[in-house]
Amino acid sequence: MRVVIQRVKKAEVRINENIFSQIGPGLLIFLGIEDVDIEDDIDWLCNKISQLRVFNDNEGVMNLSIQQKEGDLLVISQFTLFASTKKGNRPSYIRASKPNVAIPLYNIFIERLKQKSGIDVKTGTFGADMQVELINDGPVTIIIDTKNKQ
Q1: Is 111 part of any domain?
Q2: For this structure, is 80 an active site residue?
């Protein structure tokens, strides 16, 4: 499981030119899932995200978590996070899970992130053609892969 986390001032996702979800200050999380991912990966990742100290305290030091900041969360599924570009110029997505595996894990991830963070998690729609608009804050961008826990 791999995420790209961006600290944002605001973000929104549109589907068919209509706003589907939007958040104010918080974290925009792009989530990629592969077949070897399990629920333990979800738990570890949700704990990490909930406790990740990437928001500024009163001294301007990144020392606050999303919970302490009382920020928003937006999760977008993104199978392209597992693109392989080793051969040729057209990316291969063979490592990305197919919907029958990815959708249940995606839904579990959202529920566990809600539980761990205590924050209502906004989402896009799995597999939809989405347009994501955001205003980076910082910018702060963090990549976490559950295969690199240690």
Answers
A1: yes
A2: yes
Say if CB 56 and CB 74 are below 8 A apart: no
CATH assignment of the domain containing 26: 3.50.80.10
Cis peptide before 104 (omega within 30 of 0): no
pTM of the model: 0.94
Give me the number of domains the chain comprises.
1
- The residue segments making up the domain with residue 103 are 2-145
pLDDT for the residue 67: 94
Q: 138 vs 24, 35, 58, 60, 70, CA distance in Å?
A: 15, 33, 15, 11, 18
Q: What is the average per-residue pLDDT within 55-80?
A: 96
Contact predicate 16/77, CB 8 Å: no
- Label residue 88 by pLDDT band (50, 70, 90): confident
Catalytic residue among 80, 85, 123, 125: 80
- Say if residue 21's pLDDT is above 90: yes
